[in-house]
């Protein structure tokens, strides 16, 4: 099951002192459905405001366009002063892939936004990072060199014609840089020292750029140069990491302050561990760390798995546990409470996209099922039962991974447990997906049908929604049927004390498949395409037959094992 595409956008506006202007720009973002404004961070000294929004790609670039339009109408760059480098009312507007979308696809959305800004607003636009049209424009600092004051001349040079928009300078709005880049994690690691010098030493060990290589004394020794006279640098431990050391008077400690520009090259936990290693070598101790701003869910899950592996434990744990382990392992709550609901991007977006059924208690879910409404119904119940089956298989795998004397089998069982966790999450998603599919079908039936055109539109919408109402329980069948491989392995090779649990899991998986089959069949009666109906029916019947056969085979193993 594919994740929904989510991107983040972090536009920087050249205004940090007039609250009414900042609020007007923020409001232009809030008015776009499907986008959530996550953060507004104004700076008076820099006279600059950074806003963070996230949502579906198409909606995000619509919100970004409206914000750029509002900024251009309210900010006059001829009077702007501030400490931060800038070249326009909207200085830079990066798009960042969060989930369900590639960097290449994100760059395409950046170009769509840039073209519209150039065409409709008459603002020169330059593309940078992954959306750059030429290598020399990848770096933001290179594009912005000369700033607003120098662009009236710079834009006339052939090599600095904009990628989109006019080749004449917009004197009030300036120019804008739009692009696509990796998520930047702002991350500080706390040290048990007040010494900024020692913190810098750790930072130089860790950051990619490292330190200048010197002869003898690493601080005062003669600088080493190559045969061309260029300064030789000793590379740091972490690729894609920029770092400095500083002293924070508020906390009375020094920190290593890092920007992790590519978590695929250096993860959060790798940066933390590198600081621990460097600090220990220098007689220091890392006491904790803090995240500045937001972080993608995957970054925290990867950290949790890393530290569970280091403990010799199964990393096939629920997301909640993985996040808890990550927080405690890196001391993310040392300086202030760490609330995942406020620090993890996907969780911040959940108030608009949260699955209502899967957030209910068991009692609440059964009450919803028992209510006098057709949804949720059998499809959602089948998905939930399937999730129970996957959970039981995962439980047996995790228990087997930790069984004394079975240490050499741990990787094997953890691999099965990871598959079970993924299936559990997919089936929980299906609980709400089945209800959404039913509601979409009901909405299609409510469409007007007075005119021939309306009838045609309504008929097409009903056919599409009916197909969705079939695909949803069919997917429940597919995912549930896949669980028999896990449950079969656990009954044959797992902890024999838990064989009955694997058997109950098989019973649940079969119930999910049979429940899905019933929903496929009842919804198929409304499908006009006979070819599609036959294909759905064939697959559903094959899955049902396979599930019944697998459950019986597993039950025989369970009974034999129990004696």
Automatic annotation (TrEMBL):
Pfam families: FTCD, FTCD_C, FTCD_N. Its main location: cytoplasm. Gene3D superfamilies: Formiminotetrahydrofolate cyclodeaminase monomer, up-and-down helical bundle, Formiminotransferase, C-terminal subdomain, Formiminotransferase, N-terminal subdomain. Residues 5-182 form the Formiminotransferase N-terminal subdomain domain. Keywords: Coiled coil, Cytoplasm, Cytoskeleton, Folate-binding, Golgi apparatus, Histidine metabolism, Lyase, Multifunctional enzyme, Transferase. The lineage of its organism: Bacteria, Pseudomonadati, Bacteroidota, Saprospiria, Saprospirales. It is found in: Cytoplasm, Cytoskeleton, Microtubule organizing center, Centrosome, Centriole; Golgi apparatus. GO terms for biological process: L-histidine metabolic process. GO terms for cellular component: centriole. This is Formimidoyltransferase-cyclodeaminase. Its EC number is 2.1.2.5, 4.3.1.4. GO terms for molecular function: folic acid binding; formimidoyltetrahydrofolate cyclodeaminase activity; glutamate formimidoyltransferase activity. The keyword Lyase applies. The keyword Signal does not apply. Folate-dependent enzyme, that displays both transferase and deaminase activity. Serves to channel one-carbon units from formiminoglutamate to the folate pool. Pathway: Amino-acid degradation; L-histidine degradation into L-glutamate; L-glutamate from N-formimidoyl-L-glutamate (transferase route): step 1/1. In the N-terminal section; belongs to the formiminotransferase family.
């Amino acid at each position: 099951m594919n994740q929904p595409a989510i991107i983040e956008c972090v536009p920087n506006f050249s205004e940090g002192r007039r609250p009414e202007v900042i609020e007007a720009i923020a409001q232009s973002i809030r008015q776009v459905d499907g986008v959530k404004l996550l953060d507004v961070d104004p700076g008076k000294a820099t006279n600059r405001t950074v806003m963070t929004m996230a949502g579906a790609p198409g909606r995000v670039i619509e919100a970004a366009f409206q914000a750029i339009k509002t900024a251009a109408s309210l900010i006059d760059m001829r009077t702007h002063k501030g400490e931060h480098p800038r070249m326009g009312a909207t200085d830079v507007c990066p798009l960042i892939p969060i989930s369900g979308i590639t960097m290449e696809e994100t760059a395409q959305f950046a170009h769509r936004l840039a073209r519209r800004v150039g065409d409709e607003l008459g603002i020169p636009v330059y593309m940078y990072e992954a959306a750059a049209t030429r290598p020399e424009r990848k770096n933001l600092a290179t594009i912005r060199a000369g700033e607003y004051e120098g662009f009236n001349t710079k834009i006339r040079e052939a090599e600095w014609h904009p990628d989109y928009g006019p080749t004449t300078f917009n004197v009030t709005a300036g120019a804008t840089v739009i692009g696509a880049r990796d998520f930047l994690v702002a991350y500080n690691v706390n040290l048990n020292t007040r010494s900024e010098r020692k913190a810098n030493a750790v930072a130089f060990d860790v950051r990619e750029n490292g330190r200048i290589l010197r002869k003898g004394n690493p601080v005062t020794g003669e600088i080493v140069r190559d045969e061309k006279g260029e300064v030789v640098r000793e590379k740091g431990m972490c690729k894609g990491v920029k770092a400095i050391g500083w002293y924070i008077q508020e906390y009375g400690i020094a920190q290593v302050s890092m920007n992790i520009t590519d978590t695929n090259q250096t993860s959060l936990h790798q940066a933390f561990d590198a600081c621990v290693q460097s600090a220990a070598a220098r007689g220091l101790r890392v006491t904790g760390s803090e995240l500045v701003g937001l972080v993608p869910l995957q970054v925290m899950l990867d950290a949790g798995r890393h530290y569970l592996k280091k403990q010799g434990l199964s990393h096939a744990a629920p997301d909640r546990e993985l996040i808890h382990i990550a927080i405690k392992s890196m001391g993310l709550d040392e300086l202030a409470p760490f609330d995942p609901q406020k620090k993890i991007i996907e969780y911040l977006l959940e108030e608009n996209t949260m699955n209502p059924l899967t957030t209910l208690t068991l009692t609440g879910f059964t009450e919803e099922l028992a209510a006098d409404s057709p949804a949720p119904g059998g499809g959602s119940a089948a998905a939930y039962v399937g999730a129970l089956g996957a959970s039981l298989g995962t439980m047996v795998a995790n228990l087997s991974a930790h069984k004394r004397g079975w240490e050499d089998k741990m990787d094997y069982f953890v691999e099965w447990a990871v598959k079970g966790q993924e299936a559990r999450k997919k089936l929980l998603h299906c609980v709400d997906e089945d209800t959404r599919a039913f509601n979409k079908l009901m909405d299609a039936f409510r469409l007007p049908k007075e005119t021939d055109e309306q009838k045609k539109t309504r008929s097409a919408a009903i056919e599409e929604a009916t197909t969705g109402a079939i695909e949803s329980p069919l997917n429940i069948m597919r995912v549930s049927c896949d669980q028999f491989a896990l449950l079969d392995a656990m009954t044959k090779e797992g902890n024999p004390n838990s064989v009955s649990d694997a058997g109950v899991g098989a019973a649940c998986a079969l119930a999910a498949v049979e429940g899905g089959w019933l929903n496929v069949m009842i919804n198929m009666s409304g499908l006009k395409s006979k070819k599609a109906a036959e294909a759905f029916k064939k697959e559903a019947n094959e899955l049902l037959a396979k599930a019944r056969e697998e459950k019986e085979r597993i039950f025989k193993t369970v009974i034999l094992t129990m004696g």
